[in-house]
UniProtKB/TrEMBL annotation:
Gene: LOC110758876
Gene3D superfamilies in the cross-refs: 1.50.10.10
Alphabetized SUPFAM superfamilies for the sequence: Six-hairpin glycosidases (SSF48208)
Catalysed reactions listed for this entry: Endohydrolysis of (1->4)-beta-D-glucosidic linkages in cellulose, lichenin and cereal beta-D-glucans
This protein's name: Endoglucanase
The organism's place on the tree of life at top rank: Eukaryota
Amino acid sequence: MAYAATFSLVTQVLGLTLCLLSLCCSAFTPQDYSDALEKSILFFEGQRSGKLPANQRATWRANSGLSDGSSYHVDLVGGYYDAGDNVKFGLPMAFTTTLLAWSVIEFGDSMHNQIENAKDAVRWSTDYLLKAATSTPGALYVQVADPNADHRCWERPEDMDTPRNVYKVSAQNPGSDVAAETAAALAAASIVFKDSDPSYSGKLLHTAMKVFDFADRYRGSYSDSIGSVVCPFYCSYSGYHDELLWGASWIHRASQNSSYLAYIKSNGHILGADDDDFSFSWDDKRPGTKILLSKSFLEKNNEEFQLYKAHSDNYICSLLPGTSNFQAQYTPGGLLYKASESNLQYVTSATLLLLTYAKYLRTNGGVATCGSSKVTAETLISEAKKQVDYILGDNPAKISYMVGFGKKYPQHIHHRGSSLPSVHEHPERISCNDGFQYLHSGSPNPNVLVGAIVGGPDSKDSFSDDRNNYQQSEPATYINAPVVGALAFFSANTNPN
């Protein structure tokens, strides 16, 4: 008995020690992740275009773009500005919406008191995308504002006097990439609202199907149709095949309509299913599509989807140091590094894929196969956590790359509305050229764009908190959208490993 009691006491002490070690060695608590989750969603309120609602929390913003589309006899009020400018670009807005919806679909159960805010963020975009898709038969509006003119000014959205031209794709000027991504966004969002607002959900799905049919029937890249206003900003470098497969996959998941399954089976090889690609972004959807489709193989052991599981494994293994497929680049501090401009967009999108795939594997008792080794869901979660923690401040510079989170974060972000005085503090109009004094000012931004994740550090973990260095200091909606799901996961999983 004495031996048993001693053994029990040792076990308890060891367990407590391990628990304390786990707590002391974890950079952030569940409360920290919850705080970051709330802020990551709040960011989208700072990006809103249109008439702001009574419950608007980013109160330094005011109404803007209220006549968007009117000179073309179409209502294109609403939606999001993509980054630090005042343009509404359809391709990144739709991709943002798809990933926001995916975050809610996979991790909404962990969002608790933030779930309604997350759904509001999705709806703000889908309300706009519905108008863009249904206002004119046979056309999809894909952009508001001339970006070249917009970028020659530094002015608040509330003061805009640059041309608010609208651009559309049609049968004569196709845009399969932007149309199929819009279809994906509407279909994914239809899942988000399926239970809470079935009528709205049905409208989203019905419109998604029509837009997808348009994308598939009139094939072509929107870069070829309206290239002068989308390139080099959001040129479709990867073409449109990846979006067609991505769009069909989301409509199939939302509708369970067998015709979309047949489309995927018959067109997959043509549309990029056989290609391994290791970068998931607003431009290239291939890794995300394969992980989305691998769910069917894992759940039903459907051999026809085995290809997608294999390619998903290849993508995941490419991110994991020590595996035979490893080919990613990391900074000395451990951050995934893809590009010098807005690198954190690749980090947050990869993180969402790591966690989503980990969820699919866990649910179905699967593993990822990396050559001769097997990788568990826990390994994927651990890698995702490193990336999220780095963004939040566990990095060599000890700076949070999320504005408003932690004690040290970027103060001079490349963002017009944030860097200029709020219209509430400075009601007089600030003209196009007069705004540049604020761009070049050394003072911190007067309006804190809470929750914004900026482009991030370079390949050596160095960061310049400088408005003129837009590559590192500019936030974007598609950087934030995937991290919403990741933060929800970690807020609810105290010890995910």
